[in-house]
Design brief:
alpha+beta, 4-stranded mixed β-sheet, 12% strand, globular
Length: 206
Amino acid sequence: MLDQEITLITTALLATGQTYSEFREMTVRLVEENKTTGPNQSESYLNYTKMNLQRMNRWDKTIKVAPELEKLVASISSPQVWLVISEAWCGDGAQTIPFMAKLAALNPKIELRIVLRDENPELMDAYLTEGARSIPILIALSGDLSKELFVWGPRPQFLQNRLKAYKLDPQNITSKEFSDGTHLWYARDKNKAIAEELTPLIAETI
């Protein structure tokens, strides 16, 4: 972790972050007001936000954590901060942040906070994905913020590879068809991919 990145993640920044419950409550209010986060208030982004609220509602009711992963997270003995960069309109965020929150809730030593990408451009630019401001990004840190433990995101590797292939050759698939395929994959995967990818990262912190 670069010194510059360490200085970007401070207790002051965490104080501006939201718990998962607060993020959910904010999204509910925004949908009621026909708004979303960030400068883009287009109809499409408003619709994304409405769909994301439904996705988070569904995952909150159906997420299951494998016993092995639950035991691993529960064994974390030193405080950790899980900082997530996202936005209310982010489809990948709605599909994966509920699982991150479920894991964090398994151990009181894990503090999860969510900050908005467009309100923190300098932080976002320190965690680009192949040059892009892709979200969500999960940054796990030691409790005193002095050490970066791991970074995950913005999506499971299968979907990241699928997106790269699509950008190279859309093969007559519309962006909506591609997006629909992504969310269908999430529904069928049931958080297995993110669990498999986070498990070794979490294990290294213990």
